[in-house]
Write the structure tokens for this entry.
Amino acid sequence: MILYNTLGNEKQEFIPFEGNKVRMYTCGPTVYHYAHIGNLRTYIMEDVLEKYLRYAGYDVKRVMNITDVGHLSSDADTGEDKMLKGAKREKKTVLEIAKFYTDAFFEDCKKLNIKTPDVVEPATNCIAEFIDMVSVLLEKDYAYISGGNVYFDTSKLDKYYVFGNQKEEDLEVGVRDDVEEDLAKKNKTDFVLWFTKSKFDDQELKWDSPWGIGYPGWHIECSSISIKHLGEYCDIHCGGVDNAFPHHTNEIAQSEAYLGHQWCKHWFHVLHLLDRRGKMSKSKGEFLTVSLLQEKGYNPLAYRMFCLQSHYRKPLMFDFDTLDNTVTAYNKLVNRIANLKDDGEIETAVADEYIAKFKESMDNDLNTSLGLTCVYDVLKAKTNDKTKLFLIADFDKVLSLDLIAAAEKVKAENETKTADVDVAKIEELIAKRTQARADKDWATADAIRDELAAMHVIVKDSKYGITWEIQN
Ligand code: AMP
Ligand code: ZN
């Protein structure tokens, strides 16, 4: 499989450290509010990646953290803890907030057919591991204590900007109103590993540590949770593109300093979902959630399809018109699948040919839009319906659009409708209407049309004569 690797900024063949074993890490949500559909774009694309790796025969173990402490409102280690902010907003405790929004996150994931990773670990479960990692970094002289906090010393590294495309100004502090310069740091790029003497005396969750009572920095949790569950090597680490710097850059710095060797080979970043104000983000106030889409009558899977139609490395502009088009496309696709008959034998040579095409698309830097096109190609293929159904179900293991289940539902609904229908009566009415029209008796013809409409019958005149169907 060819995948773009942010480490190197190029497409590379994806080769795990050990055979077909893939250790995959995903930066999880900060559970202080509902996930917006931008966050969920990232999780949808990561889900497709995981499912495709499994489909391609890899043995995947995937780990995700839940950030329930330490993520400050600015990535430059300043500002208030996001969790505390959420708790204050809702007049609840931090743990109540964390539990509520963790559950809400997984409910959203379920609606979008995003599989729960094999391991999900809240940061507050791993304080001992964080303390251990910080202690080792201090022992190895990669960290220092200043102003009561423990900092990572970035000047000890040969190369800090590992992704190569960040600028020092990204970390410039003191130039924005909401960011204050931390005078305890030796270097501008240094970051906090453990807070004790922070400005936030009211921090709700605090733990004892060799450096005093305090709480962990945000970056340490991902390094530590990954190493706890995946060991010293990670094959692929994922997140939204805003995580690349400083979060992932700092994760690499501290993990490799701690381990003494390369940690993670491949970095997979999903570009942002945008709205007319730019990057969708919670700090801008209003944001779109899956529940809101449902309240507006949208099937969450139409949003999943909306995401699959575009490449993960391109920013994606959200608007309702495009989503409406996707809904139409999804329903049409499902209706076409509902018309397939489950009979005959699978033609394996044809199936192999289409599977190869699907793999070729997905192997090309996870081209989900081409992967989706393969479903349409199958519908047009010169093969029997059994083979088509088999292939669509197979691709949907990765795409997860519930195509077969939705088609079954449409079929069942159509059958119920047809079972309730008095065919003889409808045909009698249509014959009477035809006669009335021939007699130019428009009043009778209109009355019959209304009667048919009340029975949800749509009459169509075509060059082949009059046909009818029951409206869905
Ligand atoms: P957070 O809950 O803020 O820690 O973010 C969860 C995930 O969503 C991270 O991987 C972010 O990089 C990602 N993310 C944040 N905003 C967006 C966006 N507008 N589009 C896509 N992904 C995003
Ligand atoms: Zn992370």
About this structure: The two ends are 42 Å apart (CA to CA). DSSP finds 15 helices and 16 strands in the chain. Residues 27, 222, 247 surround zinc ion (ligand 2) (CB under 6 Å). Residues 172-179 have pLDDT under 50 and may be disordered.
